[in-house]
Specification:
This protein has 29 helices and ten strands. The radius of gyration is 27 Å and the shape is globular. The longest helix is centred in the C-terminal third of the chain and has 27 residues. With about 625 residues, the protein is of the alpha+beta class. Helices cover about 55% and strands about 10% of the residues. It is a multi-pass membrane protein.
């Protein structure tokens, strides 16, 4: 038991510090559990090799994989973008209408398409709505993320956390979730949460991003952008741009070369410098002064606005923000070690990471999920970035390659995936059999299609109907999520088998001497919310559900009510930007600080804790 708690502590530290990617941390946990539980080694964890790798064959893992593919199929049709344009037409310049459109679309859609890709698709749509409507994106992007979490609680498939919790509930209580198990409570959460955002929440949000977008001023990079001239006696004459500056000694990049009123941008690495060339540099003042002191360059000035970097005479380049999502090849890399610049002929001027704007020594900084890069590139490069799942471009791209003609097929397939799980075939078959006496309906009464089967069937149907190409299946899967699930599922098993869940359950059950059952349920909701704020929502479910079931058993409460409290709390993590991936998606484009999520999320979390706990007690009983 002590060893299992040690592994849990190690996992928590790694999740919080991100010393290792979360999927690698999960694999490490899996390895430790198997090494310490394999025959021939002291069996500290009571986990065999088969059990240690059981996360890969778990129905939850495979179902999440299938749902990610199905969500990608919906995305390929462009249906969400079409809805987004309807949102923009409705929103106009009214903040109330912009909020209503954002929440009214992202919430319900997230109940039927995994809420993470919904937010990834809608970030650029909502950012464009904000700028066209003369509103700061900061006022809309956190509501977008929060509304997607509300919507995720409408159905079993709204978020991967629900699917995982259903699998754990089936193992612990023999009670998996049905498709609409908690929809009635999910609707209440959606309505109450939306009302909060429309009336109170948006007033607590500052305007971090200026209404009139100017990236140079927003990222405060004017001090890092300098114009210099190559003098006739400069030693740089005759060298290429790539070799002109020693990047080991100087943290500086040549962004543009201006020669005889003609401007050159990426790729300019092999362009030879001449006398009189004007170079636009990204470098701090100290670095520029060192270059000037060495009589290498002569100071000319600094561009102070986007217009200076994007004059009308050079429409072939633009500045844009891109968000790094989970699964991107940039995660864990630095700009120096990755091939980002070479692939996209793009220059990174600055980036935001966990609320910090980085403008110097960027090349060596490790890029993390949710980081936002300020990129200058040609329009065709921006288009390629928009079409690549490795990035979320924070403006709505014009993509002619959406398979809009496949929208009816995709919608029909998703309806089938949901319908064949949701329809009570047994009851329907029995009723029809009794009414008609037809033996075929008696066979139907025995039919039971779990979400795992319908989701996999949906994947096959998506490919067969041409909604997805076979090669796109693998790109659609967020493999770090799959490895995370596979790694943490055995951790929950170890917590049960070693008696750790019993011990923790006894400690929490002791609060029953001072609190009513409803109070203990509320404590579990709050505790799960706090834990989810610092680690993965999926990890918090796996750790908290066995303890919740054991606590309920010891105090004589309804264990399923406690399962639902943990599930709702883990799937609605508002307190921090790192507790839920949708929060990370809006962190950079919204220009938010960590405290913005606490300011808006803490009252919302407290409000929904009361609503959810009372709803669970009313609908399912204690």
């Amino acid at each position: 038991m002590v060893v299992v708690f040690g592994i849990i502590l190690l996992a928590l530290v790694l999740f919080v510090t991100e010393w290792l990617p979360i999927d690698v941390t999960a694999i490490l946990v899996m390895v430790l559990l198997m090494v310490l539980g394999t025959d021939g080694v002291v069996n500290f964890t009571e986990i065999s090799t088969a059990e240690g790798t059981s996360g890969f064959s778990s129905s939850a893992t495979i179902t999440v994989l299938a749902m990610l593919i199905l969500s990608s199929g919906i995305s390929q049709t462009g249906v969400v973008q079409i809805v987004g344009r309807k949102m923009s037409a409705f929103a106009g310049e009214s903040l109330d209408r912009q909020l209503l459109a954002t929440i009214g679309v992202s919430g319900p859609i997230s109940g039927f398409i995994n809420n993470t890709p919904v937010v990834a698709i809608l970030v650029p749509v909502v950012s464009d709505i904000a700028h066209k409507g003369k509103t700061s994106p900061s006022k809309l992007l956190i509501p977008l993320s929060y509304a997607s979490m509300f919507g995720g609680m409408l159905t079993l498939i709204g978020t991967s956390t629900n699917i995982l919790a259903s699998d754990v509930s089936a193992r612990l209580l023999d009670h998996p979730f049905s498709m609409f198990e908690f929809t009635k409570l999910g609707i209440i959460v959606l309505l109450v949460g939306s009302a909060y955002l429309l009336t109170i929440g948006h007033r607590l949000l500052p305007e971090r991003v200026p209404v009139e977008e100017d990236y140079v001023q927003e990222y405060k990079i004017e001090e890092y952008l300098t114009e210099v001239v190559v003098d006739d006696d400069s030693p740089l004459i005759g060298t290429t741009v790539a070799d002109a500056i020693d990047h080991v000694e100087f943290d500086a990049d040549i962004l543009q070369v201006v020669r005889d009123d003609e401007e050159f941008i990426e790729p300019i690495g092999q362009k030879t410098l001449r006398d009189g060339d004007l170079l636009r540099l990204r470098a701090d003042r100290e670095t520029v002064q060192q270059l000037v002191d060495r009589e290498t360059l002569r100071l000319a000035g600094s561009p102070e606005t986007v217009a200076d970097l994007e004059p009308e005479a050079a429409p072939d380049r633009t500045l844009v923000e891109i968000v790094v999502p989970r699964g991107s090849f940039l995660v864990g890399e630095s700009l120096e070690s990755s091939t980002f610049r070479q692939r996209y002929d793009a220059t990174v001027l600055a980036f935001r990471s966990r609320g910090e704007t980085v403008r110097e020594d960027m090349d060596e900084r490790r890029i993390r999920v949710g980081d936002t890069l300020l990129v200058q590139a040609a329009p065709d490069s921006i288009d390629r970035l928009s079409q690549n799942d490795d990035f979320i471009v924070a403006h709505e791209p014009e993509r002619p390659d959406y398979r809009t003609e496949k929208i009816p097929h995709a919608v029909a397939i998703m309806a089938g995936v949901v319908g064949f799980v949701a329809v009570p075939w047994a009851g329907l078959g029995a009723a029809l059999a009794g009414a008609t006496g037809i033996a075929a309906f008696e066979a139907m009464s025995a039919l039971s299609l779990p979400i795992l089967v319908t989701a996999l069937a949906g994947v096959v149907a998506m490919v067969a109907a041409g909604v997805l190409r076979p090669t796109e299946i693998y790109d659609a899967v967020e493999w770090d999520v799959i490895f995370l699930l596979a790694g943490i599922i055995p951790l929950g098993m170890a917590l049960e088998q070693t008696g750790g869940a019993d011990l923790l359950g006894s400690l929490v059950a002791a609060t029953g001497a001072y609190l009513p059952m409803l109070g203990v349920l509320w404590v579990f909701y709050l505790a799960t919310g706090l834990i989810t704020g610092v680690i993965s929502n999926n990890a918090s479910v796996v750790l908290m559900l066995p303890v919740a079931v054991e606590t309920a058993t010891q105090i004589g409460a309804n264990p399923f009510a406690f399962v639902l409290a943990v599930t709702f709390a883990a799937s609605t993590a508002f307190l921090t930007p790192v507790g839920y991936q949708t929060n990370l998606f809006v962190y950079g484009p919204g220009g938010y600080k960590f405290t913005d999520f606490v300011r808006v999320g803490a009252p919302l979390q407290l409000l929904l804790s009361v609503v959810t706990v009372l709803g669970i007690a009313f609908f399912w009983g204690l």
